[in-house]
């Protein structure tokens, strides 16, 4: 069993692990010849199934195993994220699978360059040769190599063979979300208001804040909070409802005609004022705020609403080629499910 890779996008890798760590401490990391997958399946809360193209985070990449070159690992996201943070200013970073005292490890080796020169500038009249002599005398730049080790657990193929993405029905509404950090800011504000109201009413804030998210097929999105003490909402309009691809829908064009979202187009309005045509879910405010942290990665996000059942988010990470090659899928159950 062998894994070794050169990391070329430390910032994306660091932001990704930080976002995933907010939803669960452990991730199933699947390494193969074709892709890199992170999966989080907590006892409660949002499931994440991330499928990344190799060049999203790695440059040179090699994986070998007796199981068709597939390696399954259980990785603690906190230690991995801290190790990656230390490499943000590195000139190079390499990750490999190793072992110490029979304990499997992910070793992150980073190289940094520092200068021994205590002066900030050369004399104004110094020429090229003078600079070279000065560097030779004071030692010039110095490379430092640091290795950080993250204990992991190797998972046998039969341990993960029964893990599959949740099955959901066809969505009633699909819509491109506004910037996630904007949504996070508003949802965090709603959650704080609800907690403050709960403390004022009972002296404690132990109850979970339930946010209602709703969307229609006319480019409208609504976030609402309703409690005994308040009722507030924010509405977005002029968003995009992407067209369905017949090749991705059962029965092709006929399937699109019979699709729930096609029927929802006949209901509601583009100004968001109609009570008809909304598909809604009731979700935990704090959990939603954690999901929204993936907005730091940028990219396009499509939300699929299964009315009163589930909300599925597809986060497409931007690539140099402009193609959507990596996607993070979030499965959020509705309280009414």
TrEMBL record:
Family assignment from sequence similarity: Belongs to the HUS1 family.
Recorded GO CC terms: checkpoint clamp complex; nucleolus; site of double-strand break
Lineage, broadest ranks: Eukaryota, Fungi, Dikarya, Ascomycota, Pezizomycotina
An individual GO BP term: mitotic intra-S DNA damage checkpoint signaling
Keyword Nucleus belongs to the record: yes
Species of origin: Bimuria novae-zelandiae CBS 107.79
InterPro entries according to UniProt: HUS1, HUS1/Mec3
Subcellular location: Nucleus
Record protein name field: Checkpoint protein
Keyword Lipid biosynthesis on entry: no
Key words of the record: Nucleus
